[in-house]
Amino acid sequence: MKKALLVTHVSGFVPQFEMNNVRILQHMGYEVHYASNFHNPSYGDDNSRLEGTGIVCHQIDFARSPLKIENIIAYKQLKHLMQTIHFELVHCHTPVGGVLARLAAHATHTGPVIYTVHGFHFYTGAPIRNWLLYYPIERFLARYTDMLITINEEDYQRAETFSAKPVRRIHGVGMSLEKKDILLGAQLTELRKKLGLEDSDFIIVSAGELNKNKNQIMVLKALSEMETQNYCYLVCGKGPLKEKLETYVKEHQMQDRVRFLGYRKDLENILQLADLFVMPSMREGMPTAVMEAMKYQLPVVGTNIRGNRELIVEGKTGYLVPLNDSQEMAKKILDIMDHPSLKKEMGERAAVKITEYSSELVEQEMLKNYKEVIAAYKQGST
């Protein structure tokens, strides 16, 4: 059987974002292998979602930081894996996984190699250190890339200046438009009760790791500036900044208005309770959390960054606010809170907008990309 290798440096990435591609490759007759650091799961607490998928897993000791010396070991492990097993396709993701996989594939003459960019670390407004570190690396490695795939327009335009052959853009990772486990009135009431919510609360939700980039502190600052207390902010996710965020909540006496829910496997249920979704990130590629919220007809208030700009249509499906402008975020949240008809209209438009990023569309795009790169590689090898 033909074998394809997926590479990411954290093991939760494929079950969270790439299962559509796994199924495409399996339908194309490939046995799918997955190289990752399974001691470092992300987007969940364990690797249980990989069970029963038919994926063959290989432990690679990736470090999260590209500058860690452990990644030299990971590179050697990847080389050994590619020398031991003949892979007829390599598809890598994440910055560290993308760098080491392409270097190892080049050294072992393994190909073709696809790299999907889920958001370059160098972007409009990025810190200069990001440009100095990541930009030259990605530009150099484009020559070892048989197809470079981007998921937003800004990254696509930038990648077009590289030497990759070719560059393609897809509509995110694909969003299932199916709404699972729709909660009825009694079920919603029970969930509200479990979460300690009042019937009159305006429910604001965010979802993502509690870290500097996801920037939940911006939402807390915005809420602390609002005179009204008629809201509850549900923070879904876990991460290193939880204690700092909780401290801010206590210092500003917001304990009754903010709930830290941890990582939620039932996010779709939480979204059915919500009135508004917020995305305060500093950097995004194409945020799936925003897509999920829009699917459930939620307006979104998000920072005016790459990714958010393509999903949030200003004044139509939500609002875009300047990064770290908590006063403007508070103003936009209040505008939606005070105008129920506006909230409803924005939510309805959001549900229509998200159909442009459906799983069906992205699967068609990826099937075409896989066939194209495989055919071109075979032609170049003859």
Description of the molecule:
The chain is α/β, with parallel strands linked by helices and 382 residues long. It has two domains: 2-174 and 358-381, Glycogen Phosphorylase B (Rossmann fold, 3-Layer(aba) Sandwich); 185-357, 3-Layer(aba) Sandwich (Rossmann fold). It contains 14 helices and 13 strands. The chain has helices at residues 13-27, 70-84, 95-108, 128-141, 153-159, 185-194, 216-224, 242-251, 267-273, 288-295, 308-311, 326-338, 340-353, 359-381; strands at residues 2-7, 30-36, 56-59, 89-92, 113-117, 147-150, 167-169, 202-207, 231-236, 258-262, 276-279, 300-303, 318-321. Strands 3-2-1-4-5-6-7 form a seven-stranded parallel beta sheet, with helices on both faces. The protein has a six-stranded parallel beta sheet with strand order 10-9-8-11-12-13, with helices on both faces. α4 (128-141) links the parallel β5 and β6 (147-150). α2 packs across α3 (95-108) and α7 crosses α12. The longest helix has 23 residues, at 359-381.
What's the helix and strand layout?
Elements (H helix, E strand, L loop, with lengths): L1 E6 L5 H15 L2 E7 L19 E4 L10 H15 L4 E4 L2 H14 L4 E5 L10 H14 L5 E4 L2 H7 L7 E3 L15 H10 L7 E6 L8 H9 L6 E6 L5 H10 L6 E5 L4 H7 L2 E4 L8 H8 L4 E4 L4 H4 L6 E4 L4 H13 L1 H14 L5 H23 L1
Parallel strand pairs: 1-2, 1-4, 2-3, 4-5, 5-6, 6-7, 8-9, 8-11, 9-10, 11-12, 12-13
Helix pairs in contact: 1-14, 2-3, 7-12
